[in-house]
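step=encode ok
step=design start
structure_in=
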């Protein structure tokens, strides 16, 4: 990184614009920055830091950048810092403007403008500057990335503060660690320590959680085992818990299995006794069943004997019905022939009733002949019927032509009237569209004015409210000031009263023989006495506290007044001086105009649609007018052809219809007559045929009844049974036979007959004994099931515990490993002999590099006498790792850096700062630092040492570096020719630059 130019305006002590040409100063490699105290030497370095990082070092940054502005600057001049530099091969220009409280452009008071930042890059090919960004965040990230250093690192490496490194030399290990941690950013190693500690706590919690779950399973096993298991007296996390739980579980499982074997033997014995009781009960039940069966069979035999007569009558009725079934087909045939004859006779009578009187006595053949004659005459009228249908079609077509002609005449009349007004209609519609378009444009313009008007109205309302708040805050501030003044006056009065009576207070502390605190005498002949209304320490302190509270309240009220005034000024800048009522009226008028314009513009779409529909209607009506004219011309010839065809058809049809009103009526009459004659002929033939079939059926029925043994056909018909009666009769006969066979079978069984002769069975006693045996078996089975469940539950819980122990083993191993690493990195492990934390170890390595780099220059500055070395020895009972010693080559002794003299401390700290700059530069990725500044400390050197130090600084030019020395030492002005002098005055400081 090389600085080229720095421009300052209204920054720090510089009231105007000042410029520093670092290229000219750096040409000599070593330049001096000097000036009287308070002139602004450090402000030049602050400006460099502010241009790069947007803030200045240490406590000088405050008030969000407002304190950077020069008190000497003109109120209208804005504070600005511009730095031109080259970094990473890129020539950049950074311009920053901090927040600026400037006078208002309108009205009185001030307003605060926000900070601004610009970043530009020089294009060497085009010879122009190119804008890169105006974002504070983007520019900060870009500069930090290019430099590879934070602001703290930059201030330690580029702006070398010698006082800090002198303190670094004398500091203890903890203070050195804090500084090195900021420079080398070793937070990641501290995060590793924290991460390992967290992992150790997490692993320990997981192990304890696993042990707690294992112990919970052990409690469940104890509940399942009853009194057969003793739990180990160990807490979760204690060693040996898993083995103790598994051992106790194994003992409980063995005991449970022994109890299961005993329960199984008891169940077998109870099962044998229960089986014997069940067999005795089954035998008693079988005897009881046989005895009851024998008694029921004898009762059923008695009932059968009583119903024997009815059974014989049913068998005879079944036999007569079987014989009558042979006559049933003849009966059914005769009934069918009779029904058919009656239907045919009725149909013949109905058909003859529709015929004329002349056909009343005609037979079937005569009726058929008359039907054929009527059909022949009907066939001759078919051609005339087609002609009559054609004539009706011609008349309908001519009527349709008349209708079309009238419709076309209506269309032509309406179209001509509508087209006559077309130009007027179209002009009116176009005017509506144009008016709506103008309203839409006006609505857009008014919409853009609404938001500024609303903001200005809101600002005016805020202005009015803040004006009232300002008056209230002013009154409150005045009241608080009066209260503070009264409290101060009261306190001073009490203090004066106390001082007047202080002798009495001192006298109250005198003791006989003890010296006086004022004169030292041991005799106190006339000690002062407290008068009425004496003011003591407590009263004065209470008055002082009240005064301080009042002062604080007054300061708070003044701050509130200042804040309200700032807000009021900002609101006035936004709203101006226009009254709120006027702004409300203007805003309402703007809203009304905007609403009216929107309403007018809303008709644009409908107006366009109406114009489009009107144009389409114009095209449709024009086409309809043309088509109507064409149709009228074609109808004239068509009408003449229809008239000629109509006359020919009417002449032909007059001859065909005769006396009937129409050919269709004549044809319908003939069709009706032919159909009736044909139906009557068919009905006469059907009646004659059915009469013959009825006669034949009567003969067959008489013959069938005689062969079946019945005197008359009526007797046979009475003997027939329907399907339901036949099934019922057969069911009764079958039931009788089944019952008789069943009774006979039961009374023939030897065991049943023998059981009937034995004493009655005692079923109740057998059932009672079987119940007691079953209860004993259930109790034995329950005991066995309980023992089996206990074994199964113990096996399940033991398996789960064993699985938990297996799963917990890797967690325990991980916990032990993490705990060992956490203790090692935290410096609490016995393996860490020096009790050094991981972050301290890394910083010790960095400190060792810094010491080695510093020694190269320190040996030249001290003529080879001193060497800086890193020490990792422990100090007292603390931890080691960040010790720093100096080796004196004259004595060969190693001693603490705190023993160096003032001048030795300066060049040692200078060497340390330069070495640290080299190490941090390498740490930042090798970014070259071509410009360095060294602040103060040269006054403590003698001439020879000063020459050696300057030689070391001058040697930095070998690495193409330039070094700026900030110092008051007058001898340096003679030794260093390139100088930047800061001259202070009443109107602010100015910069004077002198080259080689």
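sequence_out=
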């Amino acid at each position: 990184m090389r600085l080229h130019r720095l421009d300052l305006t209204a920054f720090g002590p510089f009231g105007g614009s000042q410029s520093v040409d670092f290229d000219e100063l750096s040409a000599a490699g070593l330049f001096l920055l000097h000036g009287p105290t308070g002139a602004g030497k450090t402000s030049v370095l602050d400006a460099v830091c502010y241009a790069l990082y947007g803030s200045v070092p240490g406590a000088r940054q405050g008030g969000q950048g407002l304190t950077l502005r020069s008190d000497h600057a003109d109120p209208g001049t804005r504070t600005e810092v511009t730095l031109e530099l080259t970094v990473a091969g890129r020539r950049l220009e950074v311009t920053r403007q901090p927040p600026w409280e400037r006078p208002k452009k309108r009205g009185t008071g001030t307003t605060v403008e926000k900070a601004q930042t610009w970043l530009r890059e020089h294009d060497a090919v085009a010879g122009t500057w190119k804008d890169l960004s105006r974002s504070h965040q983007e520019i900060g990230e870009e500069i930090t990335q290019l430099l590879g250093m934070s602001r703290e690192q930059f201030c330690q490496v580029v702006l070398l503060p010698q006082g800090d490194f002198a303190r670094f030399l004398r500091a203890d290990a903890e203070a050195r660690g804090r500084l090195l941690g900021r420079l080398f950013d070793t937070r990641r190693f501290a995060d590793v320590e924290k991460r390992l500690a967290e992992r150790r706590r997490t692993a320990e919690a997981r192990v304890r959680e696993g042990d707690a779950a294992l112990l919970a399973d052990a409690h469940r096993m104890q509940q399942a085992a009853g009194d057969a298991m003793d739990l180990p007296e160990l807490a979760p996390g204690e060693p040996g818990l898993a083995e103790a739980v598994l051992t106790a579980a194994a003992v409980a499982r063995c005991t449970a299995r022994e109890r299961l074997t005993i329960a199984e033997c008891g169940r077998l014995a109870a099962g044998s006794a229960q089986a014997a009781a069940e067999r005795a009960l089954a035998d008693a039940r079988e005897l009881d069943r046989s005895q009851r069966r024998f008694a029921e069979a004898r009762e059923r035999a008695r009932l059968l004997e009583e119903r024997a007569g009815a059974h014989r009558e049913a068998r005879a009725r079944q036999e007569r019905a079987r014989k009558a079934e042979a006559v049933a087909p003849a009966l059914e045939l005769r009934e069918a022939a009779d029904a058919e004859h009656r239907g045919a006779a009725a149909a013949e009578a109905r058909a003859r009733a529709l015929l004329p009187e002349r056909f009343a006595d005609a037979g079937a053949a005569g009726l058929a002949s008359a039907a054929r004659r009527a059909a022949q005459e009907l066939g001759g009228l078919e051609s005339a019927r087609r002609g009559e249908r054609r004539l009706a079609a011609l008349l309908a077509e001519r009527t349709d032509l008349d209708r079309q002609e009238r419709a076309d005449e209506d269309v032509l009349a309406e179209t001509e009237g509508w087209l006559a007004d077309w130009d007027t209609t179209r002009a009116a519609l176009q005017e509506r569209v144009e008016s709506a378009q103008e309203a839409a444009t006006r609505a857009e313009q008014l919409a853009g004015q609404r938001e500024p008007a609303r903001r200005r109205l809101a600002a005016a309302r805020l202005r009015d409210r803040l004006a009232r708040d300002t008056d209230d805050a002013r009154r409150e501030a005045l009241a608080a000031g009066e209260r503070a003044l009264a409290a101060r006056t009261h306190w001073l009065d009490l203090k004066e009263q106390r001082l007047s009576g202080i002798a009495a207070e001192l006298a109250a502390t005198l003791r006989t023989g003890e010296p006086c605190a004022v004169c030292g005498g041991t005799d106190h002949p006339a000690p002062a006495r407290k008068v009425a209304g004496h003011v003591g320490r407590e009263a004065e302190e209470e008055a002082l506290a009240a005064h301080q509270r009042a002062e604080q309240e007054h300061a708070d009220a003044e701050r509130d007044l200042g804040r309200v005034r700032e807000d009021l000024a900002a609101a006035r800048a936004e709203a101006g001086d226009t009254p709120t009522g006027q702004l409300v009226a203007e805003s309402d008028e703007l809203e009304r105009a905007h609403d009216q314009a929107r309403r007018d513009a809303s008709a644009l779409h409908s107006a366009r649609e109406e114009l489009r529909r009107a144009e389409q209607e114009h095209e449709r009506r024009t086409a309809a007018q043309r088509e109507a004219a064409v149709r009228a011309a074609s109808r004239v010839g068509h009408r003449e052809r229809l008239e000629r065809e109509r006359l020919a058809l009417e002449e032909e049809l007059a001859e065909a219809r005769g006396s009937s009103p129409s050919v269709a009526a004549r044809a319908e009459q003939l069709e009706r007559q032919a159909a009736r004659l044909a139906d009557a002929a068919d009905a006469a033939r059907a009646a004659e045929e059915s009469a013959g079939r009825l006669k034949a059926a009567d003969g067959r029925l008489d013959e069938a009844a005689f062969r079946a043994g019945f005197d008359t056909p009526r007797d046979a018909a009475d003997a027939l049974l329907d399907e339901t009666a036949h099934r019922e009769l057969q069911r009764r006969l079958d039931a009788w036979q089944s019952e008789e066979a069943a009774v006979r079978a039961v009374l023939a069984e030897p065991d049943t007959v023998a059981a009937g002769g034995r004493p009655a069975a005692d079923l109740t006693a057998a059932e009672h004994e079987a119940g007691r045996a079953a209860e004993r078996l259930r109790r034995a089975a329950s005991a066995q099931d309980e023992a089996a469940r206990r074994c199964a539950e113990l096996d399940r819980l033991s398996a789960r515990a064993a699985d938990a122990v297996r799963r917990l083993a890797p967690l325990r191993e991980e916990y032990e490993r993490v705990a060992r690493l956490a203790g090692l990195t935290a410096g609490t492990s016995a393996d860490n002999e020096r009790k050094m934390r991981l972050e301290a170890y890394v910083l010790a390595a960095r400190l060792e590099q810094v010491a080695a780099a510093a020694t190269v220059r320190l040996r030249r500055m001290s003529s080879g006498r001193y060497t800086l070395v890193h020490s990792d020895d422990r100090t007292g009972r603390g931890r080691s790792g960040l010790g720093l010693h100096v080796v004196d080559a004259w004595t060969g002794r190693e001693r603490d850096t705190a023993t160096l003299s003032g001048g030795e401390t300066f060049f040692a700290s200078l060497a340390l700062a330069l070495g640290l700059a080299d190490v941090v530069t390498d740490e930042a990725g090798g970014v070259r630092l071509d410009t360095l500044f060294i602040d103060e400390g040269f006054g403590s050197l003698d001439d020879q040492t000063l020459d050696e130090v300057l030689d070391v600084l001058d040697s930095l030019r070998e690495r193409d570096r330039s070094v700026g020395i900030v110092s008051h030492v007058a001898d340096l002005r003679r030794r260093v020719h390139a100088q930047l002098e800061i001259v202070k005055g009443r109107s602010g400081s100015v910069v004077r630059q002198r080259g080689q």
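step=design ok
step=annotate ok -> Residues 247 and 338 are 109 Å apart (CA to CA).
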